[in-house]
Design brief:
This protein has helices at 19-28, 71-78, 93-109, 122-126, 136-145, 161-195; strands at 7-13, 43-52, 55-64, 83-89, 114-120, 149-152. By secondary structure, the protein is an alpha/beta fold. A 6-stranded mixed β-sheet has the order 2-3-1-4-5-6, with helices on both faces.
């Protein structure tokens, strides 16, 4: 596991919504269909280093408990997160409503946190359209409404897992670079104003 974390990413959503499987697939490349994951208590942490345009970025990933009884505990873990993956199960409409709850929480407490809406268990709806209980267009419309990007994933097949986390890392790097450039431009502007000689204002002799 890497030491220094550049970007804190938190996963939020209803229990059994696919968060832990998603993290396991991304960090360890594993998916165990024979032994379903137990409900997370508190939070689990993992880290992974990626390279974005030649720049190394270490993601610190917090998988939070989805159970409502651990709600207050989850708030502790998402504090200070720069990115949040709000997950819902594509086969469970109640998990989509729960996702909206977490989005509202983030909007109120972590204004600078970039939100990514993630529909999980895509493999279950890929071949069986009747299994899908959350329409993709509705989810995309909601994502647009909250200024979030929407991705559908499958921890079982790995579909869009790497894509999701790479997108998060790329967005982070781009935002960081833009901030650095903006600060440089501001510093240059200030330096230019300081270098300019004061105007020679002679009193008018009328």
């Amino acid at each position: 596991m890497a030491g220094k974390v550049d970007l804190k990413v938190v996963l939020l959503g209803k229990e059994y919504g696919g968060k832990t499987s998603l993290v396991e697939r991304y960090i360890h490349g594993k998916f165990n269909a024979q032994a379903p994951y137990q409900s997370t208590i508190g939070a689990a942490f993992g880290a992974k280093k990626v390279t974005v345009n030649g720049e190394s970025v270490t993601l610190g990933i917090w998988d939070t408990a989805g159970s409502e009884r651990y709600e207050s505990m989850s708030r502790i873990y998402y504090r200070g997160a720069k990115s949040a993956i709000v997950c819902f199960d594509l086969t469970d409409p109640s998990s989509f409503e729960r996702a909206k709850f977490w989005v509202n929480e983030l909007k109120q407490t972590e204004e600078d946190c970039v939100i990514y809406l993630c529909g999980t268990k895509y493999d279950l709806v890929e071949d069986n359209k009747k299994a899908r209980k959350v329409d993709a267009s509705s989810a995309k419309e909601y994502a647009d409404e909250i200024s979030a990007k929407y991705v559908e994933t499958s921890a079982k097949t790995g579909y869009n897992i790497d894509y999701l986390f790479m997108m998060i890392a790329e967005d982070f790097v781009n935002v960081t670079r833009n901030k650095v450039q903006a600060n440089k431009d501001e510093d240059s502007s200030v330096a230019l104003r300081l270098e300019q000689p004061p105007m020679n204002r002679e009193k008018c002799k009328c």
